[in-house]
């Protein structure tokens, strides 16, 4: 796999990289926001651990939203 400099990327490739970055920052930010406001008893496991996990690319925030939160029954 060859690595390209930013200037060597096509416009669609640059847009894809920027889009992926925006999605990542939005996911992580919303997960950290939710974690900071959610009571500890409504989080599976330690909040500090989830704060670290959320920082792992796309998988961290998705894991927090799917596995880390305890939601009240409907």
Automatic annotation (TrEMBL):
<keyword id="KW-0472">Membrane</keyword>
<dbReference type="Pfam" id="PF13396">
    <property type="entry name" value="PLDc_N"/>
</dbReference>
<feature type="transmembrane region" description="Helical">
    <location>
        <begin position="48"/>
        <end position="67"/>
    </location>
</feature>
<dbReference type="GO" id="GO:0005886">
    <property type="term" value="C:plasma membrane"/>
</dbReference>
<dbReference type="InterPro" id="IPR027379">
    <property type="entry name" value="CLS_N"/>
</dbReference>
<keyword id="KW-0812">Transmembrane</keyword>
<feature type="domain" description="Cardiolipin synthase N-terminal">
    <location>
        <begin position="31"/>
        <end position="69"/>
    </location>
</feature>
<keyword id="KW-1003">Cell membrane</keyword>
<protein>
    <recommendedName>
        <fullName>Cardiolipin synthase N-terminal domain-containing protein</fullName>
    </recommendedName>
</protein>
<feature type="transmembrane region" description="Helical">
    <location>
        <begin position="15"/>
        <end position="36"/>
    </location>
</feature>
<keyword id="KW-1133">Transmembrane helix</keyword>
């Amino acid at each position: 796999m060859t690595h390209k400099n930013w200037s060597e990327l096509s416009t669609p490739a640059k847009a894809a990289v920027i889009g992926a970055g925006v999605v990542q920052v939005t996911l992580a930010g919303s997960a950290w926001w939710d974690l900071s406001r959610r009571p500890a008893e409504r989080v599976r496991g330690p909040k500090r651990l989830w704060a670290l996990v959320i920082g792992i690319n796309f998988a961290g925030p998705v894991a927090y939203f799917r596995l880390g939160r305890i939601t009240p029954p409907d």
